[in-house]
Amino acid sequence: MSAAGESFPDSPAVWCSHLRKRFRRHQAVHDVSLQVGRGEVVGLLGPNGAGKTTVIKMLLGLVTPDDGEVLLLGRPAGDPAARAGVGYLPELFRYQPWLSAAEVLALHVRLSGADVSAAEQRDRLDLVGLGARAADRVGGFSKGMQQRLGLAVALVARPSFVVLDEPTSALDPLGRADVRDVVLGLREQGVAVLLNSHLIGEVERVCDRVVILERGRVAAAGSLAELLGQRQVRLRLTGLTPAAEQRLARAGAVHRGGDGPDVLTLSLAGGGSDQDDDGERSDRAVPELVRDLAALRVDVHAVEPVRVSLEDRLLGILRGAAEDRAAEDRAADERAAQEREARR
Ligand SMILES: Nc1ncnc2c1ncn2[C@@H]1O[C@H](COP(=O)(O)OP(=O)(O)OP(=O)(O)O)[C@@H](O)[C@H]1O
After folding, report:
1. Where is the ABC transporter domain (predicted)?
2. Model confidence band, residue 220 (pLDDT cutoffs 50, 70, 90)
3. Strands of 161-165's sheet, edge to edge?
4. Percentage of residues in the chain with pLDDT exceeding 90?
């Protein structure tokens, strides 16, 4: 690992608190606090215009926040020593078309001030699948090849924190799989990664934690286990009594219909999981419920977890946030109407 950015090794790779950014009349980022720990892979998700790229640029000291604080590798974001420890693949990438891929890499090594041998630079091109094109001019590269080169540029100076803004937007499925392997390899080496991607499956495969932005705010954040949780189970039950219905209602919200008269879906209260003494997740809610239902003489024919994908969760969170905002707008309209009425 490079010595750059390593003078505060116990600090998170990046930490920010209450970031805000307005562009003219548009508040792009309202209030964002997040953290990427050392060696952690964090996914940044959210719809178009949610503020992901603006947040990334503020984290890297490329956009000045109106408010809030950032520490990059334990230092202020604009500090050259912090930047030297960071590899960045921007969303909009463009490299000097008159240079060869090897020359682009060598240029970035010089700019970074790191000591990276020619052999190591070639290894980076091999890693992104451009080893055979090292001597070719970038002007003749396809978009996907340029994006691969961008990834090599981001990795070449042995960063301890890598920020990838839509790293697979120009890549074919094979290229996306390659990037996934690269990210997993970084994690193995203890390199922290912040990954902004619309490809939710990709994020689900490689990320330890996810931060979901919606209209410039953090709509949800947590580990994949926390976000996905075992939140729902489908049960096939016969012989339900009022007491059993009450027991079910205590376990969570009951949804019926669609899958037959005996089938119900239970959204477990509190996500249905607790922490045991060792801090491990343990799902006691379901076995306890089944035991109690059996004691109440209910016939339990089937119990199956409903698998919730990150995509489902993301859509649910974003729809929930949109509904909350619509309700707030309606309440504000009503208040304004009441005030107008009172003034008459
Ligand atoms: N330099 C700028 N000048 C004016 N407005 C900007 C600027 N940069 C971003 N914005 C606005 O800020 C908002 C957030 O943009 P940003 O690029 O951060 O979103 P994003 O979540 O990365 O979107 P996408 O997924 O489409 O890339 C958008 O409304 C955008 O138009």
Report:
1. 14-240
2. confident
3. 75-76, 67-72, 14-23, 26-36, 217-223, 209-214, 41-45, 192-196, 161-165, 86-89
4. 55
Q: Which fold has domain 14-227?
A: Rossmann fold (3.40.50)
- To test the ligand 1 pocket, which listed residue (23, 45, 163) has its Cβ within 8 A of the most ligand atoms? 23
The pocket around ligand 1, CB under 6 angstroms, is made up of: 23, 26, 28, 46, 48-54
Which protein residue's CA is at the shortest distance from atom 5 of ligand 1? Answer: 23
**Ligand 1, closest atom to CA 57?**
18
Domain ranges of the chain: 14-227, 230-305
CATH pick for 230-305 out of 3.40.50, 3.40.960, 3.30.70, 3.90.75 = 3.30.70
Q: How far is the CA of 80 from the centre of ligand 1 (A)?
A: 25
Whether the model clears a pTM of 0.80, i.e. scores above it, the answer is: no
Query: For residue 96, is pLDDT > 60?
Result: yes
- Alpha carbon separation from 17 to 30, 38, 51, 63, 125 (Å, rounded): 11, 17, 15, 15, 36
